[in-house]
Each structure stands twice: as structure tokens, then as C-alpha cells.
Amino acid sequence: MIRLFWELIRVSFQRHLTYRAATLAGLLTNLFFGFLRAAVLVALYGAQPEVAGISIQAAITYTGLAQAIIAYISIFGWYELMQSVYTGEVAADMLKPMGYFRFWLARDIGRAIVNLAMRGVSLMLIYALIFDITVPAGPGQWLALAAALGLGLLVSFAWRFLVNLAAFWTPNAVGVGRFAFGLSWLLSGFVMPLRFFPDWFATLCHLTPFPAMVNTSVEIYLGLLTGPALWQALLAQLGWFILLTLLGHLVLRAGVRRLVIQGG
Question: What is the distance between the alpha carbons of residues 62 and 204, in angstroms, rounded to a whole number?
């Protein structure tokens, strides 16, 4: 079963690796908006060297990081599972010798690796050539960042999986997805660092799984999370993944039961 899981990751990786033109177009788009966001933050900072504990250098780095992980965690939307329900492919997918959740997770990991390597890393390298960006201080911080990125992807996938299951109850769940994904943009720290918001709003955000997708990785990269706070953030990511996964399986079970009853 593990071998099959890795084989699905490999196939998905190769599949998305062929979309080089789309990847390049996406990279250029991310760069444009990254530079635009950096310019806005520089203007907002003005003569202030630091805001909410974040230096202007770190703020510019944040804009690159936020843009670099757009495709990696599919924060703007992901509807493949939803479309498979509408086309009827869901029936064949569920007959595969692997759990439905793990089947889609393997496919998503392959997709994510391609986007992180070709769009995420490339964007940060270009940023480093243009700006004096912040870089993690040592191997410990890099390892923590790698763990946060991996867990962030898992939380993101579990959330997207859950949102896509709405297709079992409505003939067009894209509207549900747009609302759900739009909510994640704001509450995850993607639009603006959560430290820039009032304390009550930042606390509200941390009661949701969304900061585990973006904010945790960004703050670890910038060195804003260290010691016990870092471990607490990583455990929170793991906790949200487990919770969303369990919820996703419960909703999937109800959705499949509904599909069978209706003769799907």
C-alpha cells in the first residue's frame, strides 16, 4: 500500500511537470503581485523601521513567501475532486485499492512538490537577487521550516478535501468552494501578516486551521517563532490535520451513503 501511495505521487509529479508553460506563466504572475505587495508594504512602513515586531526587510520577505506558496497549497482554489463527483469518476476512484482520502492526498502531494520546486523556490531565488531578504539562520530553523511546510500542505489538503465533498449535496459546489477558499486567504495570514491585525482578530484567526497553512511557515522562516512557541505551532498544525481528516472521513461517509441511495 505504501508503494502504491508513492507511485501515485510519482505519476502526479510527472503529470504536473509537463505543464511547463503554465508553470512559467504562474511564476511571472506571482512575481508581479509579489513586487506590487512589497511596494505597498514599503509605502505603509514609511520611515518606520519595524511594525509589530516585523522589520521592513522581513515584511518584504513575507510578500515573497506568501506568493511562493500560492500554488503549493492551492490557496486560491482546488476543484478536481469536486469535478470527479460531477463527471462520475468518483465511482471508479472509490474502487481503487486505496482509501479515497489517501488516493487524493498522494495526487496532491505530487502536484505540490512540482509547484514548490518550480514556482516557490524559483520565486524566492529571484527575490533574493532583487531584495535584501531575510534568510533562516541555521539548519535547525531550516528543518523547522521544512516540517511546517509539510504540515501546512497536509492541513491545506484536508481542508480542500472537506470543501470539495460539498459536491455530494449540491449540483454546483463551486460557490461553496469560492467562499471557503476566500475565507482562508484572510484568516491564514496570506493577505497580511496576522501580527499586523488587532489582537482580538489574530486570536480569532488562530482558533481556525487557516494560520497553520500559511502563517506558521512564514513566521518560522522569518525567525518570529522560536523555542516553545515554535513547537506549539507545529503541534497545532498536526492537530488541525488530524481533526480535519477525521471530519473529512465522516462527511465522506455521509456523502457516499447519499450517492448510493440516489442510485449514483
Answer: 21
Closest CA to 38 of 152, 144, 134: 134
Q: Collapsing DSSP states into helix, strand and coil, what is residue 54?
A: strand
C-alpha cell at 17: 511537470
Q: Which three cell numbers stand for residue 260?
A: 448510493
Domains of the chain, residue spans: 2-261
Q: Decide if pLDDT at 261 tops 50.
A: no
Q: Could you tell me the pTM of the whole model?
A: 0.92
Nearby residues of 156 by Cβ (< 8 Å), 6 or more positions away: 73, 74, 75, 213
Handedness of CA 221, 224, 226, 231 (dihedral sign): negative
The per-residue pLDDT for range 53-69, each reduced to its tens digit, is 888 888 899 999 999 99
**Contact between 38 and 67 (Cβ < 8 Å):** no
For residue range 190-247, list pLDDT tens digits in order. 988 899 899 999 999 999 999 999 999 999 999 999 899 999 999 999 999 999 999 9
Burial per residue of 52-80, b for 16 or more beta-carbon CB atoms within 10 angstroms, e otherwise: eebebebbbbbbbbbbbbbbbbbbeebbe
14 burial via Cβ count (<10 Å: 0-12, 13-18, 19+) = exposed
Please tell me the distance from the alpha carbon of residue 251 to that of residue 183, in angstroms, as a whole number: 20
Query: What's the CA gap between 94 and 259, in Å, rounded?
Result: 12
Hey, which residues does 55 pair with through a beta bridge?
50
In this structure, what C-alpha cell is assigned to residue 44?
505603509
